[in-house]
Amino acid sequence: MRRPAALLLLALALPSLLSLAPGPQTGREEAVRSAELVPRLERYLEQPTVEPSASYDPSRDAWRVLFVERASGTPVATVAVDDDTRRVRDVRVSPRADALAYPQLSEEEAIKLARAQEEVREELSKHGPYTADAEYENGEWVVHFYVRGEGPVGGVPHEESGTKEVARVGIDDSSWQVNYVYVGDQVGWNMARGIPGAYGKQANYWWVWGPMALVFALVFFRNDRVLSLRNLDVAALLGFLLSHAYFREGIVFEAVLLWYPPLLYLLVRTLLMGFGVGERVEKTANLPTPLLLALAALAGGFVLALNTDARVIDVGYAGVVGADRILQGTIPYGNMPADVGTGDTYGPLNYLLYVPFVLMFGFSGEWDFLPAAHALTAFCFAAGALALLYAGWRLSGAREGAALALAWCVFPYTLYAANNNTNDVVVASVGAIGLALATSPLARGMTVAAGFAIKLYPIILAPLWMLHDGLRRRPVADFLLGGAAVVLLSFWVLFLNGRPLEAIKLFYERTVAFQGDRVTPWSIFTQVPELAPLRPLVVALSAALAALVAFFPRRRTVRRLAALSAALIIALQLGTNYWFYPYVTWFEPFVFLALLTATNTKTELDGPPEEAEDGREGA
Q1: How far apart are CA 586 and CA 588, in angstroms?
Q2: Among the ranges given (6-20, 32-46, 476-490), the one the predictor scored with the smallest mean pLDDT
Q3: What is the C-alpha separation between 45 and 41, in angstroms, rounded?
Q4: Distance of alpha carbon 22 from alpha carbon 26, whole angstroms
Q5: Cis ω on the peptide bond leading into residue 553 (within 30° of 0)?
Q6: Angle, helices 584-596/398-410, rounded to nearest 10 degrees
């Protein structure tokens, strides 16, 4: 009898006991609603980015409601709400609440505005489901759109989540105006965004490059024979401007595809010329020698003047940093600052060439005007012009020398490379000097080694330039001696840290390996993935071509040397995973000498060495 009575009493008391047990009686949403009713908080809660969160504190049997401005992550206010009665116990407003700059747009509204942009809708239509988020800073919302994907082409990959950011939109919070829209490759590549003057500055203005291209065309265009190889050559050299027009507008796909036709034409043209097909050039220029020299001086001065107001892009900055590291007694490889982390992808001579100019003009340690970079660019631009003047004058006469100097100074892509202050104009000037001294095996060896020690790619010229005089012991030995001297004068840098084997390994990883594994949107093999399997074949064919032209054709002249050099460089460029407009200067001196100078069989330009010698004796 007692046991049933006890059970009955326990059942009657259970509800009261449960009410005394620890745990919230009020729900999270109810606690937040109670906190939102506090009059003191009304003006803060009207802000679209102020959001609440709530947590239960069992020690106080109360809810702690925290209001945070989401864009900055700053707490605005804290409210304590009694769990049993839902009454507000305590209200604390942060001292920073009134100083905050509250956005007018909410994150959802910013995403909605960004999604309404035509470019974003078009990009998202190419993919499946997407997610979006937004962040607020300094009066601007930045909205990001993500899809499932990987790889650096077409967006910015996020390996942890397995997603890729394919669109980014900046929205002004106060005016609700869209500041920018980046889609596809534009998200991860600043150079794909078509920002006016970002690369080359004044070299992008049509009233600058347009007159220079016009002068180039008028000087070298054959008006007596419109349908001629010369005019096709001029059109191909200026054909890069069509691709460049799309690049300047941030239209990547068309820009990439359109730089291949002039490259392919010049490859075929110079390769055939190297084998004697179409090598006769009847005319150099349409103007007399004094006028050519005057125009060359005027154009050269114009390029140098523009450079004083040009920007130094990352390549030139890396060169100055590398020189500074050498002066501090350390190797450049693995020691670049974060803002140019991959700037150690060049040969040691690239950095050594900046050393005297860093000593003269100093280095602030910041990416500023960098006078040392401007000085090296100006020096190499002038050296290239003088080298081509000497080459043309020595091989064919004053008119040809003046014409080559003018071509170098007035061609739009010499200006473009110079105005970016990259090492492209540096290695191009080395090629021009090599042409001026091409009849010397020692000089040829030094040229190829110097080019390799600056930017690696000229190594493809080594077999051709070494065997230019045939398989004769003395010229080959002189070539190797010249190359070895430059290598020793350059690669000693790898011994600075006292760990040469480690430095050599690091050099390889940062240069050859990095360039080989690099994936960028600046290649047809990434823009058209179906063609990607062909890239190793193109690289292999360029290597095979380098071996072939070292032995054939048997007849060698400086013109053929220049033409085949241009063909090898272009073949190599066709197989690279990164191409940029300053790369035109890599083959520019060789193309100019091969295609623009009139035939002269009395010198090494077009005559074999024995005939050239006879020609010099009778002059």
Answers
A1: 6
A2: 6-20
A3: 6
A4: 12
A5: yes
A6: 150
- As a whole number of angstroms, the distance between CA 26 and CA 15 comes to 17
The sign of the CA dihedral 351, 355, 361, 362 is: positive
Span 505-516, pLDDT tens digits: 999 999 999 998
The residue among 400, 404, 401, 458 whose CA lies nearest residue 426 is 458
Whether the Cβ atoms of residue 419 and residue 203 lie closer than 8 Å to each other:
yes
Going along 184-250, which residue ranges are E strands?
none
74, two tokens: 């700053």
Pairing of strands 74-82, 163-172: unpaired
Please name the residues in contact with 125: beta carbons below 8 A apart, sequence gap of 6 or more: none
Residue 87 CB burial class (10 angstroms; 0-12, 13-18, ≥19) = exposed
Contact 561, 438 (CB under 8 A): yes
Q: How far apart are CA 610 and CA 601, in angstroms?
A: 11
Which pair of structure tokens corresponds to residue 28? 């999270």
DSSP letter assigned to residue 599: P
Provide CB contacts within 8 A for 21, sequence distance 6+: none
Residues 6+ apart with CB under 8 A from 32: 52, 54, 65
- The mean pLDDT value for 436-449 works out to 98
CB contact at 8 A, 168 and 111: no
Q: Say which amino acid occupies 334.
A: G
Q: Distance of CA 618 to CAs 9, 192, 562, 611, 614, Å?
A: 134, 57, 26, 11, 6
Report the distance separating Cα 96 and Cα 76, nearest Å.
Answer: 7
The structure tokens listed for 617 are: 């004796």
The crossing angle, in degrees rounded to 10, of helices 412-420 and 371-395 is 150
Longest alpha-carbon distance in the chain: 143
Q: How many CA atoms lie within 13 A of 574 on its CB side?
A: 24
Mean per-residue pLDDT over the chain, rounded = 92
The packing angle between helices 584-596 and 260-274, to 10°, is 40
The answer to whether 589 and 537 are in contact (CB under 8 A) is no
* Phi, psi torsion values for 15, nearest 5 degrees: -60, -40
Give pLDDT, residue 375. Answer: 98
Beta-carbon contacts of 440 under 8 Å, excluding residues fewer than 6 positions away, are 478
Residue 416 token pair: 């473009």
Q: What Rg do the C-alpha atoms of the chain give, in angstroms? A: 34
Q: Which residues contact 523 (CB under 8 A, 6 or more apart)?
A: 256, 535, 576, 577, 578, 579
Rounded Cα gap, residues 392 and 432, in angstroms: 11
Provide the token pair at 193. 């965004």
Are 303 and 414 in contact, with CB atoms under 8 Å apart? yes
pLDDT at 521: 94
**Do 183 and 175 contact (CB within 8 A), yes or no?**
no
**Of 215-224, 287-296, 482-491, 607-616, the least confident:** 607-616
